[in-house]
Amino acid sequence: MPPSEGASGDGASEARAAAERTFETSSEEETRRLGERLGKALGPGDVVGLIGDLGAGKTVLAQGIVAGLGGREDAVSPSFTLVNVYEAPLPVYHLDFYRLGREEDVESLGFRDLLDGRGVVLIEWADRVPASLPGDRLEVAFRRLDERRRALRMRALGPAAARILERL
User: How far apart are the C-alpha atoms of 102 and 167, rounded to whole Å?
Assistant: First the structure.
């Protein structure tokens, strides 16, 4: 069963307000498949911020995104390495800001260099250091509905991010 997107009559349940969509998934597999759809909508220079509690599904969505971009590796949380790079037709830079608390910490990772427009940047715990994030990005906020179900609110901040939502 595909992730639902509101009650738009197309079998999916979608809530729209400006450049925002909310998707509901009922399993890790559905979250991964939604990530694959998102990955296929991404292009060079796109930035996706993932926001949610521990165990909310951020890494599962990232796994789907990497697969959707053509990566062969299974994404793992970069909690301790802070940055993982996955080989795909576009390089995928997967960062974890959980242990970071200051803009200086983000800069010490070489974060600005990863925003060179050649690859896709995924940031778990993007809400930890919001001042360091580029203005044009897609934010995905996870909310637990119960043990298995999640609501993922995707909000476009900028024109490139709005185009991503249009392609979903």
Answer: 34
